[in-house]
Amino acid sequence: MTERIPLLQVENLVITTTGPDGEPVRLIDGISFEVQEGEVLGIVGESGSGKSLTVLAVMGLLPVGLDIAEGSIRWRGKDLVGLRDRELRQMRGNDFGMIFQDPMTALNPLRRVGAQLAEAVRLHQNVTRGQARERAHELLRSVGVPEPEKRAKAYPHEWSGGMRQRAVIAMAMANDPALLIADEPTTALDVTVQAQVMRTLAAAREELSSALILITHDLALAAQNASRMIIMYSGRIVEAGTTREIFLHPTHPYTQGLLKSLISEGDERAYAIPGNPPLPRLRPVGCAFAARCELAKGRSVCTDVRPELELRPNGSYSACHFADELDAGRAPTTGGISHV
Ligand SMILES: Nc1ncnc2c1ncn2[C@@H]1O[C@H](COP(=O)(O)OP(=O)(O)O)[C@@H](O)[C@H]1O
Ligand SMILES: [Mg+2]
């Protein structure tokens, strides 16, 4: 437990939609996590695990038809759940800066990049047009756009993908937010520019001394950038801890599987976790990972009882009935990761 009030504190968040039979379906099934001032938290998991919905809920931007059914989202101690749209919109620009996967969704194709940036500045700051334009150029310069005065006059389609994502990072920085949220910020980009964009993002965070939530399906990317991470699976958190402990002592079979696939990447017989996650409405009563887990074979507790996220002796949290065995190395479920 920490004495400081966290910047962001999500507690038992449940997000539901309505299923085909009219019953509520839990897309996010009771997750809790915190982000401290200035820290980088990674949210890692396969596609569909609930990463985006989690941060959309934080931003107050859940798609129509999805509801926060339970839980709280505290920003500097204040609960955002139930706040009116107007209040949330105000906060969104001032306190959070969001960077989406596809820069084209964040940029208006019909407006010049500089003008969009200046508008983002003016939305929340009482400055003249001229000052906003200056600030826009300054922001573009700080994300490494060369000749910003000239480039600002271009339209988004005249920029490369990497440059566009830099513009989106600049936009997210416009009002010195205390928290940046980046949802798969490099997934839509060429491999060669991914590293540049990540460096830009890291520099932006440094300049603002802001916290960062980095969402990615790529465990390596999270490890390079985040000091702490949560691993999501089927709308739940299955493991949480420092990056170091997650790599050295993973205590959930899913995390072990992710590590094993990471290590074997590029090998002839690269490892992939077999099977697929369950659809939220077909999530089993027990462990959602059981059907894909070696360790769960023949163990009824895995199929019958939902494992809770529990604190481990190493400070990580794991939601596995057999975390003790994994910890002691007595259950090398996925094998071959002892050389991590
Ligand atoms: N608007 C929506 N309506 C119904 N289900 C949705 C909607 N958006 C996402 N989902 C479902 O919620 C789950 C989590 O989605 P998401 O947060 O987008 O996952 P991730 O970002 O980890 O890939 C998935 O099963 C997805 O199909
Ligand atoms: Mg997503």
Name some characteristics of this structure.
340 residues; alpha/beta; Rossmann fold; 8-stranded mixed beta sheet; 4-stranded antiparallel beta sheet; disordered C terminus; binds adenosine-5'-diphosphate; binds magnesium ion
Verbal overview:
The protein is of the alpha/beta class. The protein folds into two domains: 8-226, P-loop containing nucleotide triphosphate hydrolases (Rossmann fold, 3-Layer(aba) Sandwich); 231-327, no CATH class. Helix content is 35%, strand content 21%. It is built from 13 helices and twelve strands. The protein has helices at residues 51-59, 85-95, 103-106, 113-124, 129-142, 148-151, 161-173, 191-208, 219-225, 243-248, 253-263, 300-304, 323-327, and strands at 8-18, 24-35, 40-44, 67-75, 78-79, 96-99, 179-183, 211-216, 228-233, 236-242, 310-311, 317-318. The strands form two sheets. Strands 6-7-8-3-9-10-12-11 form an eight-stranded mixed beta sheet, with helices on both faces. Strands 2-1-4-5 form a four-stranded antiparallel beta sheet, with helices on one face. A hairpin with a 5-residue loop joins β11 (310-311) and β12 (317-318). The chain is globular, with a radius of gyration of 21 Å. Residues 332-340 have low confidence and may be disordered. It binds adenosine-5'-diphosphate and magnesium ion. Adenosine-5'-diphosphate (ADP) binds at residues 17, 27, 45, 47-53, 63, 65-66, 280.
- List the quaternary state of the chains: single chain
Total beta-strand segments: 12
Average pLDDT level: 91
- Indicate the CATH topology of the largest domain: Rossmann fold
Derived structural class: alpha/beta
- What percent strand? 15-25%
Main CATH class of the largest domain? Alpha Beta
For the sheet with most strands, the description reads:
8 strands, mixed
